Amino acid sequence: MDDKARRKELRTRYKQAHTEAGVYCIVNTRVYKALLGSTPNLASIHNRLAFAKSIKSQVGLDYRLRADVAQFGIDAFAVEVLDVLPTKPEMTAAQIRAELATLEALWRESLDAALLY
Question: Using one digit for the tens of pLDDT, what is the confidence trace for 54-107?
């Protein structure tokens, strides 16, 4: 297989790869506060936190966590997946974002607002 064909195949596989969309919390395990969010790619949130922990910094994380990261350290934080959105190949990115916003709003209603960033 020549280089062009291999690159084309890899590009096709990448585009067809299924990513998990869902609602998550980045939890401060010391004070039990959480940052609620949603994303079309849950793996990216896990990777962001893993990167931040590897360099012992808050780089790539939400600014609302800044004070607690400074006080408790990045190792006090963990990602919890609350809900996974079942996506279909025919769903557009806008449809996925709209579904995620609805799911996140439902979770926001069910959680104690005093425990959220």
Answer: 999 988 899 999 999 999 999 999 999 999 999 888 899 999 999 999 999 999
Cβ-contact 49, 61 below 8 angstroms:
yes
- CA 22, distance to chain mean position in Å, is 8
Residue whose C-alpha is closest to residue 34's, from 2, 6, 62: 62
Rg (CA), the chain: 17
- The structural domains of the chain, with segments of one domain joined by +, span 18-115
Pick the CATH number of 18-115 from 3.30.70, 3.40.50, 3.40.1440, 3.30.420: 3.40.1440
The predicted model scores a pTM of 0.83
User: Distance between CA 28 and CA 7 in Å, rounded?
Assistant: 42
Q: Give the Cα-Cα-Cα angle 56, 62, 68 (nearest 5 degrees).
A: 60
